[in-house]
Amino acid sequence: MARRTRWGTVTAANASTLNDGAAAVLLMTAEAAKRLQVKPLARIVDAAVAPIDFPIAPAYAVPKILSAAGLKKEDIAMWEINEAFSVVVLANMKMLGIDPQKVNIHGGAVSLGHPIGILVHLVHALTQGQFGLAGICNGGGGASAVLIQKL
Q1: Interatomic CA distance for residues 68 and 50, integer angstroms
Q2: Which DSSP string do the residues of the chain spell out, in sequence order?
Q3: Which residue would you say has higher pLDDT here, 89 or 120?
Q4: What's 136's domain CATH number?
Q5: Distance CA 65, CA 134 (A)
Q6: Residue limits of the Thiolase N-terminal domain (predicted)?
C-alpha cells in the first residue's frame, strides 16, 4: 500500500531493497594511525545530526555541517544522499540547491541497495584533497551528515 505525502508516493517499487554486501570503516586518531603505520584513506572533517521530518532531514543537517567546517556547498566534489525512497534525493537536492551531476553519481540505494556504506563509497570515489558529503535520513525523523576529505 502506497503512502501519499506532499513529496510523493513511497512504494516497494521505488524503495531500496535488502541486498548482500559489506562495507567497513576503521576509525582511529591521527596519532594511532602514525603509531600503527597505517596510511589513512580519508579523514572525517565534521559530523552533524538534525531531527526533522525524515524525508527532508538531510537538508537541515547538511548546512550545519558545512557551516561548522567553514565550507560551502560548491566546495563539495561529490554528494551521497541515502535514497531509502527515491523522493528523498530529489527533495533534498531541490531544498539544498545542489548540482544533480554531483549526487549519487554511481547510483543510489534504489539501484544498488541500502547504502549504509555510502561513506566507504565516497572514500574510494573521491580524488586526493576533494571533499565528499554523505547524508542520510533516519527512521523517527532524524538525519545524519558526515563530511570527509580524501587524503
Answers
A1: 14
A2: --EEETTEEE-GGGB--------------HHHHHHHT---SEEEEEEEE--S-GGGTHHHHHHHHHHHHT--GGGEEEEEE--SBHHHHHHHHHHHT--GGGBSTT--HHHH---TTHHHHHHHHS-TT-EEEEEEEETTTEEEEEEEEE-
A3: 89
A4: 3.40.47.10
A5: 11
A6: 8-30
Helix axis angle for 58-69 and 86-96, nearest 10°, is 50
Question: Chain-wide mean pLDDT for the chain?
Answer: 81
Cα distances (angstroms) measured from residue 137 to each of 48, 88, 110, 119: 12, 8, 15, 14
Render pLDDT for 4-41 as a digit per residue (tens, 0 to 9): 566 667 677 777 666 666 677 788 999 999 999 999 99
Report the amino acid identity of residue 20.
D
pTM: 0.67
Cell numbers that stand for 83 in this block:
535514497
Considering its fold, how many domains does the chain have in total? 1
Q: Which three cell numbers stand for residue 145?
A: 551528515
Domain that holds residue 53: 3-150
Residue 70 C-alpha cell reads as 567553514
